[in-house]
Specification:
Layout lengths: L5 H19 L4 E5 L2 E5 L8 E6 L6 E7 L3 E3 L7 E4 L2 E4 L16
Antiparallel strand pairs: 1-2, 2-5, 3-4, 6-7
Amino acid sequence: MKISFAAIGKGYAADKVQFLWKQMGVTGGVINASGDISVLGERADGRCWSTGISNTDRNQLLHKLQMPSMAVATSGDYEQYFECEGKDTVILYTQKQDCPYMEFVA
C-alpha cells in the first residue's frame, strides 16, 4: 500500500492562502485546491458560499452544501482512484476491512 500526503498539502496551502487574505483585509472568497474547498466570509451579496456534489457523470447535482466560513474535501471514485492488481480501485477504506470500500459508487 502507498500513502499520499497530497491532501495534507492542499489543506495546508488553502489555510495559508486564507491567512494571507485575512492579513490583506479580504473578507470573502473561495479557495479550490483541487477538490479541497475552503471559504472565507460571505459572498458580496451577503449569502453563504456553496458547493455541490455531483453524480458520477457530472450532469446532475446530488447535494448542495452551504458553506459559512468552513472547509470541505470531497473524493469521488470517478476522479480519484488508484490501480491495484489491474483494476481501478477507489480510495475509500473502512475500519472493518483492509480493502477498498466497494459497496457504492461515489
